[in-house]
Amino acid sequence: MRFVLDIAWTLVGILKFGSLAVVLAGVALFGWNFVGINARAAQTARADVPAESWRGPGAINGFKLMALGFAMLVASFLLSALLPGRL
Fold it and tell me: How far is CA 21 from the centre of its chain?
């Protein structure tokens, strides 16, 4: 039983710290696309922020990655609440 609990707590740690990496990857993907599209728009005569910088496929994928990271964090909190303490 102790071995199973150790594996479960290791999974909680992996989910907790892995969620941070996934959220940061999502922020980086969103930022890369947002800044790139706005930089290309600044080269032209447009003075507004293009809609595709917020609603384009790169931004949507970045938001999906952020949501996945938050879901991983919630899953790690729920798992740690359900598991008994380490022996």
Answer: 7
Q: How many Å apart are CA 85 and CA 80, to the nearest integer?
A: 9
Instruction: Please give the pLDDT value at position 78.
Output: 94
Count CB atoms within 10 A of the CB of residue 35.
11
Record the pTM.
Answer: 0.84
- Kindly tell me the sign of the dihedral angle through the C-alpha atoms of 52, 57, 58, 59: positive
Nearest to 50 by CA among 69, 61, 37: 37
State the virtual CA torsion across 77, 78, 83, 87 in degrees, nearest 10: 0
- C-alpha 19/C-alpha 7 separation (Å) is 18
pLDDT digits (tens, 9 = 90+) for 7-26: 999 999 999 999 999 999 99
User: Rg of the chain's alpha carbons, rounded to an integer?
Assistant: 19
Residue 49 has pLDDT above 90, yes or no: no
